[in-house]
Amino acid sequence: MPAGSKLCFVIGSWGESGSSERIHADMLLDFVILPVFKRFPDWRVDTLDAVSVASLITQTVMARLIEADLVIADLTFLNPHTLYELGVRHALQAPVIHMQLEEYVLPFDVASYRSVVFSLRTPDNVREAQQELEVAIRDFLEVESPVSNPVTDARARMTLTPSWEHKSASPIPAPASKSLSLKQRNDYADRIETVAFAIGELRINSISEEVQQLLSIASDLRKSEEGAPAEQIQDLTDKILLVLAQIDKVVGSSRLGKLALSGALAALVTGGGLSSVAVFSLSLAVWEGPEFFRGALEKYLSSRRPSVSRAPRKPRSGKN
Fold this sequence. Notes:
The protein is an alpha/beta fold. It has helices spanning 20-37, 57-67, 80-91, 108-111, 123-142, 150-157, 182-200, 208-223, 230-251, 255-266, 276-288, 290-310, 314-317; strands at residues 6-11, 43-47, 70-74, 96-101, 115-118. A 5-stranded parallel beta sheet has the order 2-1-3-4-5, with helices on both faces. The relative contact order is 0.09.
């Protein structure tokens, strides 16, 4: 195999030159990641730092996240851009190695998944970090097992076949266009209830009404008749999005609130009629702030509803 034919893309908090984030990123790359990949001659390592034109950063990052054979995500500093990029990779069901400086606590969404915990304080720490990373890379290369992350595990509950078979990714499929089975509706109701309970764990009294609204929507979904059209499920999903917009007004300024809302949106990818592209766009809007999210949501709903409302009038157009 030609040298450097496989791509490992490294994401993390790079920071400004001379900042603690940049010093950390350079040390991790130069002392741990690059030395380890010298033992894998058919791999090359790429980072965001290699992109010199600012206007091309987003396009390049998205392309690398999609095409890379492996992504290493340094979650130290809990940078929101890094977390978003990690969410994109998770949604693609593509391999990721999580890394974190030992004094950092990861968000609950990813804390239960394998991570290379390291320190760069001493030469021994650096050698240990190299060893742990090499083990993680070899496990990825040698163990033929499905990718495990919050998205793949949630989709497994929906009894859908994973689209990642260790070497290639494909987009999340669109939901059924005709109707959902009783089991699919109940599974989706479970996801809505999980979202409600997770948001309820924020312990904010002013959003208790919205939490109850989510639980009510889940209850309505369970009561829907067998063979209910997909449009009915989409209407319920639209109601959920409007409730999330209300919640965002209260919690959207905090990092924990943003993480909870991003997770809620991810839960709606399968079964709720939302495409992965819509979820990525709305999740990014969450991180920009409540007003931005509300605007993005209104744009999404307005782009969807006209096609639904015009459908019954189609036969009339034949008279013109």
